[in-house]
Amino acid sequence: xxxxxxxxxxxxxxxxxxxxxxxxxEVSRYFTEPADPAHVEQKYGSRIAEADRAEDxxxxxxxPCLAYLGAEPxxxxxxYLLAPDELAQLELPPSFxxxxxxxxxxxxxxWGRGCGTSLVLGLLTRLRACGATAAAIDVWVGNGRAVRCYxxxxxxxxxxxxxxxxxxxxxxDHWLMSLAPLSDEAAPGGAGWRGGG
Length: 197
Ligand SMILES: CC(C)(COP(=O)(O)OP(=O)(O)OC[C@H]1O[C@@H](n2cnc3c(N)ncnc32)[C@H](O)[C@@H]1OP(=O)(O)O)[C@@H](O)C(=O)NCCC(=O)NCCS
What we know:
This protein is α+β, with helices and mostly antiparallel strands. Strand 2 (63-69) and strand 3 (72-81) form a beta hairpin. The radius of gyration is 16 Å and the shape is globular. It has a single domain (5-189), classed as Aminopeptidase (3-Layer(aba) Sandwich). Helices cover 30% and strands 31% of the residues. An eight-stranded mixed beta sheet has the order 6-7-5-4-3-2-1-8, sandwiched between helices. Coenzyme A (COA) is lined by residues 27, 30-31, 103-105, 111-117, 139, 143-146, 148-149, 152. Coenzyme A (COA) binds at residues 27, 30-31, 103-105, 111-117, 139, 143-146, 148-149, 152.
């Protein structure tokens, strides 16, 4: 896996990058989120403020982060603990404390080199530090690259979630992927964490 990958807390000054990446067709086909700068400012600005306020960043808040390869910002990620209603909806066993995450690499020339796998491992380490004992993510069944990336990070397909999302009028099924239990040890090759707790 590439050296020098790290997560860092998202800053307000990074929001223009998010807008730019979210507007890219290669990203928006898979990470379906409005790219409009006002929306990004409102939604992700609030997340930054909430994460700054929270004593335990995993509790009830979505923690937004920026991915770096050396000094270059290359993508976005977020992690959170799943609420009881989400566990029920996804039929995840409440015997675990479930964490979730999402990510994309906006600098697409870095796709397919192992960066995604290392970044996912880094997010799993953050989730474990917040008390998660298991992790889950749902991903469009047409996103083979992400599915493979998550498998390389240790997750496996649990079941199909029919019609989980509608994108440009197209109803999409997702895979629910999970890893339970999360190992106690940080996986080798996982992206590190720079600054802020
Ligand atoms: C998903 C994403 C984070 C993965 O990052 P990445 O750096 O490309 O991932 P990796 O290189 O670690 O792993 C990708 C794997 O998928 C494989 N792959 C590529 N295209 C594939 C496809 N169509 N079907 C199956 N596997 C595929 C690669 O060969 C690689 O596996 P390998 O190492 O065994 O050869 C990145 O591609 C991305 O940001 N995509 C757009 C946004 C997105 O999909 N986000 C996730 C939403 S749930």
